[in-house]
Write a structure and sequence with these properties.
Helix 2 links the parallel strand 3 and strand 4. The longest helix is centred in the N-terminal third of the chain and has 34 residues. The protein contains five helices and seven strands. It starts with a helix and ends with a helix. A seven-stranded mixed β-sheet has the order 2-1-5-4-3-6-7. It is elongated and about 90 Å long. It is of the alpha/beta class and 183 residues long.
Length: 183
C-alpha cells in the first residue's frame, strides 16, 4: 500500500508540474501577443492625433481633412531626418497651392530644440510636437524618419520608413492625387 501511495504521489506531482509548465508557457505567449502592436495598413483610416504645434496651438490631424497630408515623424538627432528636411521643405513649397500639406511630427524633443532646428534649416511647413510619443505609438513608428501619405478622406495611402528623396515624395503625391481622380 505504501508503494502505491508513493507511485500515485509521483504521478500527481509530475502531472501537476506539466500543467504548470503549460500554463506558464501559455501566459508568456499571451503576454508576447499582446505586446505585438497591429501595424497600420494602407487603406486604413489614419489614427487621429492631437498635438501642440511649434507655434503653441492645439492641432489635430482631422483639421487637415480635405487635403493630402504627408505626415513625417522625425527628430533633430536623426541624421537621415536632417538630410530629408530640405526635400520636405521644397515639396511643401511646391504643393502649397494644391491642397497638399507637409507636417513634421517631432518625437519627444523640447520646443526650444525644435524651434532652433527649424530656424537653422529654414523650415516653413507645420511642425507638431509629440512630446509624450503618443502619435508615434498610435502610428507604430519604429525607426525614424517615417512618413505616411494620407488622402483627403483621412485614409493611409502609403507609408515609408527611412529618408525619402524629393522625387519619391513627388511621385507618391502624384500617385495619390491620380488615384483620387480615377474614383
Amino acid at each position: 500500500m505504501s508503494l502505491m501511495k508513493k507511485e500515485t504521489r509521483f504521478w500527481v506531482r509530475r502531472i501537476t508540474f506539466v500543467i504548470l509548465i503549460v500554463m506558464v508557457g501559455f501566459a508568456i505567449y499571451l503576454t508576447l501577443e499582446q505586446g505585438k502592436e497591429k501595424e497600420l495598413q494602407v487603406g486604413e483610416q489614419a489614427p487621429e492625433i492631437q498635438l501642440e504645434s511649434l507655434t503653441g496651438e492645439q492641432v489635430k490631424l482631422s483639421d487637415l481633412r480635405g487635403k493630402y497630408v504627408l505626415l513625417n515623424f522625425w527628430a533633430t538627432w536623426c541624421d537621415p531626418c536632417e538630410a530629408e528636411m530640405p526635400d520636405l521643405e521644397r515639396v511643401s513649397q511646391q504643393y502649397k497651392d494644391e491642397d497638399v500639406v507637409v507636417v513634421g511630427v517631432n518625437i519627444a524633443e523640447s520646443k526650444v530644440t525644435v524651434a532652433s532646428f527649424a530656424r537653422q534649416h529654414e523650415l516653413t511647413f507645420p511642425l507638431w510636437l509629440d512630446s509624450k510619443r503618443i502619435a508615434m505609438d498610435d502610428y507604430h513608428v519604429g525607426n525614424l524618419p517615417a512618413s505616411f501619405f494620407i488622402s483627403p478622406e483621412g485614409e493611409i495611402q502609403r507609408k515609408y520608413e527611412g529618408a525619402m528623396t524629393e522625387a519619391q515624395m513627388q511621385m507618391w503625391i502624384h500617385d495619390m492625387m491620380a488615384e483620387d481622380q480615377k474614383e
